[in-house]
From TrEMBL:
The keyword Oxidoreductase does not apply. Residues 137-157 have a biased composition (Basic and acidic residues). GO terms for cellular component: cytosol. Keywords: Cytoplasm, RNA-binding. It comes from Marinobacterium aestuarii. Residues 135-157 are annotated as: Disordered. The gene is smpB. One of its GO terms (molecular function) is RNA binding. It is found in: Cytoplasm. Required for rescue of stalled ribosomes mediated by trans-translation. Binds to transfer-messenger RNA (tmRNA), required for stable association of tmRNA with ribosomes. tmRNA and SmpB together mimic tRNA shape, replacing the anticodon stem-loop with SmpB. tmRNA is encoded by the ssrA gene; the 2 termini fold to resemble tRNA(Ala) and it encodes a 'tag peptide', a short internal open reading frame. During trans-translation Ala-aminoacylated tmRNA acts like a tRNA, entering the A-site of stalled ribosomes, displacing the stalled mRNA. One of its GO terms (biological process) is trans-translation. This is SsrA-binding protein.
Length: 157
């Protein structure tokens, strides 16, 4: 009798929580990712990190830089696996043009927020962001704490 593998119920592969803390999000985009075979296998195992990753735009193409995909130990031996290689993002021309114009503006950059499965394909949620100042981070934390207190008060009623 064949045994079934338990499927991961969540489609999220990895998140970049640091980006949500460090930047204020202006606009989000969904991009496909061009991957090799070992990378897809590694993503199925959930071995990816988006910490310190960002998107650069060169030659009218978008590239994901700094994402780390840990190669599996059981991967093919004749393929040299580079876990930090630049990966091409698949976006529409209008989206790339918009990102190019906006990132050339002062203070804007483009970062990867999350990777997830959508219809058997890997998608990367990227965002056009602006850096937060220290006082903005403190104000955001204070607002979150106020919301938590409000929820606790309503829950005890």
């Amino acid at each position: 009798m064949a045994t079934k593998k338990s499927k991961n119920t969540s489609s999220t592969i990895c998140l970049n929580k640091k980006a949500r803390h460090e930047y204020s999000i202006e606009e989000k985009f969904e991009a496909g990712v061009a991957l090799t075979g070992w990378e897809v296998k590694s993503l199925r195992e959930g071995r990816a990190q988006l910490v310190d990753s960002y998107v650069i735009l060169k030659n009218d193409e978008a590239w994901l830089v700094g994402a780390h995909f840990t190669p599996l130990l059981s991967a093919c031996t004749h393929v040299v696996a580079d876990p930090r290689r630049d990966r091409k993002l698949l976006l529409h021309r209008r989206q790339i043009d918009k990102l190019t114009v906006e990132t050339q503006a002062k203070g804007h950059t483009c970062v990867a927020l999350a990777m997830y499965w959508k219809g058997g394909r890997v998608k990367c949620e990227i965002a056009l962001v602006k850096g937060k100042k220290l006082h903005d981070k403190r104000a955001a934390e204070k607002d979150r704490e106020g919301e938590r207190e409000k929820q606790r008060a309503l829950a005890t009623r």
